[in-house]
Amino acid sequence: MQVNRISYIVYIKNAEVVKRIKELDVNVTYHSQKGKYATIYFDKSKEKEIKVSLEKMKGVSKFEKSLLEAQQVIFEV
Question: Which residues have a Cβ under 8 Å from the Cβ of 25 and sit 6 or more positions away?
Answer without folding.
Answer: 42, 43, 46, 50
